[in-house]
């Protein structure tokens, strides 16, 4: 399954989509979700999502600079990477808390629809555990390599040049305003 998830800085999962098979590109899943409309409405509040290089750079979705040429772009990429680690930690915590989601803890031998429902249920239970401050009890380190093995993502080839141009201009504005 290809799971697209949005989380907040406190690792609360605000949106999850597990309906697509693993072969579907992340950018396609994003385009076919409610996020573009939602983020379009939030744009006036200067709210952005961060995505990896597998996503197009859009006015509301900030991606890393592929080949940083200035110190400001390097600082932006560094801050972007540190901030994006929240979602990686969230995935790691979710997989550690619900071992059926982690390949070493078991496998989900069910229909894709049922697997989708299990992932959504685990995400909801994760949020409930955070809200209720349920302690995470594990004998070993919760950061046991679940997150460390992040696969590299191929850059997206976008058909939406105009939207990506606007995204590049927006990212440049963010870099100039916050990272100079």
How would you sum up this structure, described in words?
Belongs to the HARBI1 family. This is Putative nuclease HARBI1. Transposase-derived protein that may have nuclease activity. Does not have transposase activity. Pfam families: DDE_Tnp_4 (PF13359). With 180 residues, the protein is mainly alpha-helical. 44% of the residues lie in helices and 10% in strands. It contains five helices and four strands; from the N terminus they run E-E-H-H-E-E-H-H-H. It has a two-stranded antiparallel ribbon. Helix 3 crosses helix 5. The longest helix is centred in the middle third of the chain and has 27 residues. The radius of gyration is 17 Å and the shape is globular. About 10% of the residues have low confidence.
